[in-house]
């Protein structure tokens, strides 16, 4: 099979996820009266390992990093739509009886099978990594995670896919199926007045706004519509030329979680940029 080849910014993301997962598991494992079971979820888990362009070798992906955390998570739910990748991941975790691999669409699996195992009233908590390559995530997943009050998320906000396929200079040229992809990810078409503005234009033409405007609107949406209490400023993930590849979002119900992530984001924000 062909493993994903990752650049340095993906390795930075893996370091961030690993560092927070360690803090998260340490805090949750220490909770008593009541004891809280904490679960790790990876919606786009891949094969479990990647080939690093920087190191010229294989590096563990987020599922294997999570499995190495001590104190450990109670369960691991690892999802990927690619049959070869999920089969390979299954071979890597076969000795872990509490690791479950799904070769299915994460939008369906999370809503129907995994999130129901993370109910707040059953003293379950979850850290969910949602790292799609593009606009492959359904807003309903984010909304349910926010409403459950028991799930924290890291989210890849794929501005590169948005700009390449949807947020064109002339919105009239965008194909309808691409608009529908954006609507599904955003939850509706309220992204339009965010992405395009007539403000300051004497002729009333729609002009494209910038990446940060779109990202900040989504940050507000995670709070006001999905119901997450704390959504820190997202971390722009940049290539070596400082171009934004995507934004890494975090959302939680706990201020301490947001504070920890803000500190981690600050630590890594310039890592690898020339």
Overview of the molecule:
40% of the residues lie in helices and 20% in strands. With 274 residues, the protein is of the alpha/beta class. The protein has one domain (5-159, 211-268): 3-Layer(aba) Sandwich (Rossmann fold), CATH 3.40.50.150. Strand 3 (49-52) and strand 4 form a beta hairpin. The two termini are 33 Å apart. The mean pLDDT is 94.
Brief summary:
This protein has 274 residues and is an alpha/beta fold. 40% of the residues lie in helices and 20% in strands.
How would you describe this structure in keywords?
globular, alpha/beta, single chain
Topology:
Layout (H helix, E strand, L loop, with lengths): L4 E2 L1 H22 L7 E6 L6 E4 L4 E4 L1 H6 L7 E5 L3 H11 L5 E4 L3 H9 L9 E7 L8 H10 L2 E7 L1 H7 L10 H11 L5 H4 E2 L9 E2 L2 H16 L8 E4 L5 E8 L3 H14 L6
Helix pairs in contact: 1-10, 5-9
